[in-house]
Amino acid sequence: MKKTLPILFALVLVLALLVSCGPPKVPTPQDSEPDNQTGGLKAAEITVQAEKEWMEYYKAAIKRVTDANPDVKVNIKEVGSFEHIDTLDQTDAANPDVADVFALPGDRLTGLAGKDLLGAIDAKAMADKLGGWTDFDAGLGGLFKVNGEYLAFPFNIETLVTFANVKNGEAEGIKLDTPIELADVKDPAHVLLPVFDTWYGVALANSADIALLKPEGEGFVSDLTTDWGSLAPEKQAAIETLYKYWKLNREANTALFDPDAGWGYIDDQFKTGGKGIFRIGGPWELNGMKDKTADGADLEILPIGQITVAGKPMKHWQGGWGLAINPRIEEDKDKVALAEAVIAEIVNPQYFAELFRATGKILENVPAEKYQASDLSEIEKKLIVAVIESFKISPGRPLFQQFGPVWDTWKNGVLSWNTVAPDSVEKAYGELKASFDAMMADLK
Description:
The model is unreliable at about 1-35 (pLDDT under 50). By secondary structure, this protein is an alpha+beta fold. A 4-stranded mixed sheet has the order 9-12-7-13. The chain has a 3-stranded antiparallel sheet with strand order 3-16-6. It has helices at about 10, 55-70, 80-90, 110-115, 125-130, 140-145, 165-170, 200-205, 235-250, 260-270, 285-290, 335-345, 350-360, 370, 380-395, 405-420, 425-444, and strands at about 45-50, 70-80, 100-105, 145, 150, 155-160, 160-165, 180, 190, 215, 220, 280, 300, 305-310, 310-315, 320-325. It is built from 17 helices and 16 strands. It folds into 2 domains: about 10-160 and about 320-365, 3-Layer(aba) Sandwich (D-Maltodextrin-Binding Protein, domain 2), CATH 3.40.190.10; about 160-315 and about 400-444, Periplasmic binding protein-like II (D-Maltodextrin-Binding Protein, domain 2, 3-Layer(aba) Sandwich), CATH 3.40.190. A hairpin with a 2-residue loop joins strand 4 (about 145) and strand 5 (about 150).
């Protein structure tokens, strides 16, 4: 891929856009800071992908660009993000059904990059103009950088948070204002963690910085192939807490560690009137959590670190979405300049509240205080603040393709305890280690 640094980009993001009175659907900024878009673009035409719910917001953002640049044309292709990415992945960049600008989840970036299906953008310059980052590469910016090129621009931050049922907590005599230690839980229903599923088990592993798989030298290593006696004490403590939690559920004969029935058990217990108090999940689960808590009246949302493992806060991954360009336009500097201008206006921090209402996206470069001072609902503000705080303490999500086998390896290792019924943490760890030993043998 050729890295394109459009000559006109400096002009695109230097002067303030003069925003005139537009149609009623054009969002009103949250404050009086100047826009980051400007005129100066040469004639060019591109297509931008948007989901149905995003259309009005996208139309308003694009109008701000086209109003300032009468020679450009931006078309919107209404299509779901995953459907669009699958079309690109299964065909090629020249496919007319694939847009020039599109959204993609971070976990799809490496695979698409490996097939040369993403174009390079001058993300660092865009970030400098938009503002709000102290270290762009320390967050999503760095995750979206492959072989020295930025292949997407941060669209949304995602990580897991703690959802809590206030009513159930009051009934069970459990306070929500102090962290709860997983190893000290007496009733397994009080903390509902589907840690057999790797997506959630990661939060426990990350609390002790357990690397399920990481690059090292020319290959990869896993902490879970280390002999128990050589495993670092804090990592042993996390595994011991996991084992105690599994044992607590087994002795109480709960369905939590049943990969089929466990999810229904968690939902039933977390409903108001059940015994469930804490669970973890993503911001996209808000509506489901509200449904279980009297439309949110009984719902509290806290950072993921509200649950501790052997004294250390749980933490998930820094994940999220990016906005990318189709590599077929890389050789046309005017199209790239227009694409970068549109991307920058979609994530214009002046419209952070409108963006969230339309798409559910949380901007990495907007502080929690600005979200708290906005006109979003109180439950939305709690969610966003919890995501931001949880994101700050979490490591970057591993996006390398070799991570794929980890999902089943962890799950099979933990669920093997249901059959083997290990009577000590050392034996339990032995089953987990055997699962990772087999995975690593396949990677070599």
